[in-house]
Amino acid sequence: MVRPSAGQRPCHHRETDVSPPRHRVPKTVEAPCHMRRPPAPAPSRLERTQDNTGGSIGIGSHYTRDERERNRPAAPRLRTNRDAERRPRLAGLKHRRGTLAMNNATAFRTALALHQAGRLDDACKIYEEIIAGDQDHFKSLHHLGIVALQQGNYLEAVRQIDNALRLNPNQPLAHNNRGAALRALKRNDEALASFEHALALDPNHAEAHCNRARMLIDFCLFDQAVANCDRAVALKPDYVDAHDNRGVALHELGRHEEAIASFDQVIALRPHRATAYAYRGACLSALKRHREAIASYSNAIACTPDIDFVPGAVLFLTLEICDWNGIDDKFTTLLNQVDAGRLVSTPPLLLPTPSSAAQQQKIAARYFQERTSSPISNPPDFRNRHGDKIHIGYFSTDFHDHAIAILIAGLLETHDRSQFEITGFLLARRPIDAAQLRLKTAMDRFIDVSDMSDQQVAKLSRELKIDIAVDLNGYTANSRPGIFTQRAAPIQVNYLGYPGTMGTTCIDYIVADQVVIPPHIRPYFTEKVTYLPHSYQANDSKRPIPHGAPSRTELGLPESGFVFCCFNNSYKLTPDVFDIWVRLLGSIDGSTLWLLGENETMTGNLRAEARKRGIPPDRLVFAKRMAQADHLARHGAADLFLDTFYYGAHTTASDALWAGLPVLTKLGNTFASRVAASLLTAVGMPELIAEDAAAYERIALELATRPEKLARLKQRLLENGASSPLFDTPRFTRNIEAAFRRMWETYNTKGMPEDFHVEEA
């Protein structure tokens, strides 16, 4: 199964996903089938409503003949023939039973009417009265379970439906409803089994097909989910939930145009369904149809003003196109909602805002709790596992021509094979390219697990006796944190992919350094912190050193004049740093600001922003995305790389430094805003780290007006950069291996993780 990332980018940039999380939609939203509050039911042959978890559940208004046969207990059979004297007594007994059955039938119809009218407590009382007189009344037991399910009492729902199924195990509707309750309890494997049992009894059970699809989406098995949705839609063409789940699965597969068509069908059937607009917005965003995406997200908010996640997605898109109208108020509103406990954003979308480490932790913790299944109930005890080597498992969707693969390739190749065994788990299948082939060669094992559920991947990892599981995704696009709730290894590590806390104790460690996690923000990381010497970031010393940069003319730059550049993604740009850049252009005659041109809307907006600040728009030049080697080479045409403030340069900063271009950064108060400072420290250029915005502007102006000082910096970088700790891959590998050994020793001797600093190996 192929799971391409939304809007796959060239290797030197990580894609940020603005999709609403597939595992969580707010309770106030009329959501896709996989997370829904109950709408007002409308009677049908099999009444379908929604439990609080979004499962399609059935309330029987009346049963077909086949269903009545399934519900009817076996007729009592007399063991022996009795004499004629007993026949009148038996006839009387049958009469009383018939009267009781007739009364129960009348009472049940009354209860069902109340149930369908939403008077759940009144219906429940009558169901209980029926059961008091007839403990084997299947439908009343089943419907008590449905009431519990709708009221959010999921354990009671499972208990009552199990009582009903003990009387009649062949009722698909009950198995379907049992699955909905189990999913609410995050007992996902059992839930899937219940939906599949329902389908084994009735292959044409549309609700069970829809619910199985919803479970498969949770398991990241999107192709199979689409197949179940297609079957549900074939059975019921106007089945809104099936169209909805189909759209979600197609979106996750990167088939965005098809997904939009499914969401359009949902909206045609249910014009006020907020999450259909939200997912539609995510698809449009992936297709870079930014204005349409914002409009669709805005429709979602109009339908449900307190919808979760969508405000963060809208703000992110406005940053991506550099639409800064009212941006300060928008930042304030969003962050106030975070402080109030609202789940207004996914963790990555909060990083480009002026959010604090505390706010980022708050969102991460909530997001992990809502998105993932419950942790494994009885994690195995891996201690005292003796072997010659420590088994490291690297888990990623990005083992292809991508920033993570470029950074980590050298580390994988230089691991000490006498002490470590290396396994790669490919979480999303990609077309095979040179980067993936290099990684496969560098590992002892390389396993494609893209078609496996999170539970299956974790189980495989345990069977392979992985000692340390390294999550290279975190919360980046297509990540699968659910694997780590199932304890894929005794030690689980957040590294490199996501610059922040995962917000969960399922992850034992985060690999960092003293710059990215200084003492004043340490309290806002749930993981224990492993502090590497120098920088946390791996780099590959085998990357080609660029020579022969294209001419400025070839790159669309003026032949003369000072060139400031920033190749960060456009969503990292904010008005406060742009104000400084424009002032620099105004102070340095003939200077140019060279930026990465993400889209025409973004470039038009930035030119307009420059014009508003009195700078001719042609002083801004926009670069296109290029292959990695060409991208590195073009750095030679620039004079100084200017970093952004809240979500700074990461791989783009190491690219620039490797290419010999000095990077100026401002020290922030979050991991994401301190990475360039970490890299500059490791490369031995701390003078390019500004403490505040005023110092940032002063240093930039000084370097632009004192060419001899800038030339000395460049010469130092060219002479010492490749041998510095930042780019010394064997040295870095020894240090991170020392960290892995310390983690393993701590686990076996103390059992619990702890903060520690790695001394230079």
Written account of the structure:
Among the domains are: 22-65 and 94-219, Serine Threonine Protein Phosphatase 5, Tetratricopeptide repeat (Alpha Horseshoe); 372-541 and 728-761, Rossmann fold (3-Layer(aba) Sandwich), CATH 3.40.50.11380; 563-720, Glycogen Phosphorylase B (Rossmann fold, 3-Layer(aba) Sandwich), CATH 3.40.50.2000. 54% of the residues are buried. The strands form three sheets. The protein has an eight-stranded parallel beta sheet, covered by helices on one side. Strands 12-11-10-13-14-15 form a six-stranded parallel beta sheet, with helices on both faces. The longest helix has 30 residues, at 87-116. The chain is built from 29 helices and 16 strands. Strand 10 (563-566), helix 22 (575-587) and strand 11 form a beta-alpha-beta unit. By secondary structure, the chain is α/β, with parallel strands linked by helices.
Q: Describe the main β-sheet briefly.
A: 8 strands, parallel
| Number of helical elements | 29
Neighbour order of strands in the largest sheet? 5-4-3-6-7-8-9-16
Low-confidence stretches: 1-15, 23-53, 61-100
CATH architectural designation of the domain at 372-541 and 728-761:
3-Layer(aba) Sandwich
Average pLDDT works out at 88
In percent, how helical is the residue content? 40-55%
Total beta strands: 16
CATH topology of the domain at 372-541 and 728-761: Rossmann fold
Structural class: alpha/beta
